[in-house]
Design brief:
This protein is of the alpha/beta class. The protein contains four helices and seven strands. α3 packs antiparallel against α4.
């Protein structure tokens, strides 16, 4: 079999992206048309669950790529000390409570242009975070955020040994 006949494994993201992913990173696959194919538009790996410490950096990046962000929807039960708004570069962004779970954040540009982001838990290992984020931004992804995290994050240790 010739080398050209060997199928190459599908790479979701370039190698340099995989090396760059660390806590505080956002990966974006932003399509602003109504025919978005994937379930998620991006992925974000915050360093903590403190919204006022983490969200401004994400909003700055999104404003640079999308223009003004008007609202962020998140599950306030999953975050610490959630205000009703944050100010980023003199731009007021309202925070809304949505029961989306701790694995998703919704970004609104204008009145009705919404983007859904996977939120990788802050204590996730780099390898698991890269895998989850790559799956989330795959244009063909049809998997919800919670299911991506279940598939990519290691099982938590239970502290119990199985007896045989």
């Amino acid at each position: 079999m010739a080398e050209s006949d060997t199928p190459t494994p599908r790479k979701l993201l370039p190698d340099e992206i995989h090396r760059a992913v660390k806590p505080g990173t956002a990966l974006l696959r932003l399509q602003t048309t109504h025919s978005r194919e994937g379930v998620l538009d991006g992925a974000w790996w915050p360093r903590s669950r403190y919204v006022t410490a983490e969200l401004p950096a994400l909003i700055e990046v999104l404003i640079a790529h999308l223009g003004p962000i008007t609202r962020v929807g998140l599950d306030t039960a999953a975050w610490e000390d959630v205000p009703t708004r944050v100010v980023v570069d003199d731009w007021v962004v309202h925070l809304d409570s949505f029961p989306v779970g701790d694995d998703t954040v919704l970004i609104t540009r204008g009145d009705n242009d919404h983007f859904a982001f996977l939120v990788v838990p802050p204590d996730t290992t780099p390898d698991a975070a890269r895998d989850a984020m790559a799956r989330a931004v795959d244009a063909d992804n049809v998997t919800q955020a919670a299911d991506i995290l279940v598939a990519t994050l290691p099982e938590p240790a239970t502290g119990r040994e199985e007896s045989g």
